[in-house]
Amino acid sequence: MPDLPEVTVTATRYTVSLLPADDINHRAYALYVQRRPDGWGITDGVGWVEGPGGHWHFDYYEALTFAELDDALALARRLAPGKRVNGITAAEAYRRTDRTA
Fold first, then answer.
1. According to the model, what pLDDT value does residue 101 have?
2. Each residue of 19-48: pLDDT tens digit?
3. Do 77 and 70 contact (CB within 8 A), yes or no?
4. Smallest Cα–Cα separation from 85: which of 43, 26, 34?
5. ∠ at Cα 48 (26, 44), nearest 5°?
6. From CA 80, how far away is CA 19, in angstroms rounded?
7. From CA 2, how far away is CA 12, in angstroms rounded?
8. Cα torsion at 64, 40, 54, 79 (round to 10°)?
9. What is the pLDDT of residues 50-77, one digit of tens each?
10. Distance of CA 61 to the CA centre of its chain
């Protein structure tokens, strides 16, 4: 249809996980760097990172916002191995997985 503008695509969320995408636990151990109105934030799907130390907060408005995507991704990469699910970190889950099967 010539009267319509070109369709745009915008990436608004990046998945960061120590576990490979085909691992059954990938989603459970994922962090998400997500676009916010004023920049980028890091969430686990429930809470938001409120500081560089990796402390979590449930209040969206108390969350740390990064002006630059690369800064948010760098912190998410640093935090990913320590993401806990049922008391087990992503690093521990990775080591428990039999990669030869």
1. 44
2. 999 999 999 999 999 999 999 999 999 999
3. no
4. 26
5. 10
6. 9
7. 28
8. -170
9. 888 888 889 888 899 999 999 999 999 9
10. 18
